[in-house]
Amino acid sequence: MTQLKIRPAVKSDMAAVHEMIAMLAVYERQPDAVTNKIEHLTNDGFGEHPKFSCLVAEFDKQIAGFALYYPTYSTWVGPCLYLEDLLVKEEYRGKGIGGMLFEEVLEIAKQKGVKRFSWQVLEWNEPAIKFYKKYNAVLDSEWVNCKIVL
After folding, report:
1. How far apart, in whole angstroms, are the C-alpha atoms of residue 6 and residue 112?
2. What is the DSSP string of 47-101?
3. How many domains does one find in the chain?
């Protein structure tokens, strides 16, 4: 019998999470963009002051996907939650795992009482856009993303 379980990530999951981050970078057409290391993920996620939280999806005891998120703050509305990445390995897609991960992070946002749950999606990523539209997500094309890489 197939078993699917969504659980908080532990330190020993960071190698698998790092592997999936690299997979996501390839999918997003930036295969050389990942400079983060497993050790950094471990320290940043499980140190004295964790910088993020992470869920993993286990399918038959194999890590099939992850969702990494962290708190943010809006001067307009107050506390928020930001979903940095959500990925389900290709061989596990179509089994509802992405929806379960997303809904678990959404539930965490509700439990924390945040005022906004947000994330980004590439404009060409039609499968993801279609997925998020099922949740009545607002896809805002008005704002321009800005960043400085240090």
Report:
1. 18
2. SSS-S-EEEEEEETTEEEEEEEEEEEEETTTEEEEEEEEEEE-GGGTTSSHHHHH
3. 1
Q: Determine, yes or no, domain membership for 115.
A: yes
Q: What residues contact residue 145 under an 8 Å CB cut-off, 6+ apart?
A: 120
**Distance set, CA 64 to CA 4, 118, 120 (Å):** 9, 23, 21
Name the nearest CA neighbour of 4 among 61, 71, 69, 50: 61
CA 97 remoteness from chain centre: 13
Would residue 146 count as lying in a domain?
Answer: no
- Can you read off the two tokens belonging to residue 42? 């471990």
What is the Cα–Cα distance from 16 to 22, expressed in whole angstroms? 10
H or E stretch covering 15: helix 14-27
Are residues 102 and 123 in contact, defined by beta-carbon separation less than 8 angstroms?
A: no
pLDDT digits (tens, 9 = 90+) for 125-144: 999 999 999 999 999 989 88
pTM check: above 0.90: yes
CATH number, domain at 83?
3.40.630.30
Q: Annotated catalytic sites, by residue?
A: 132
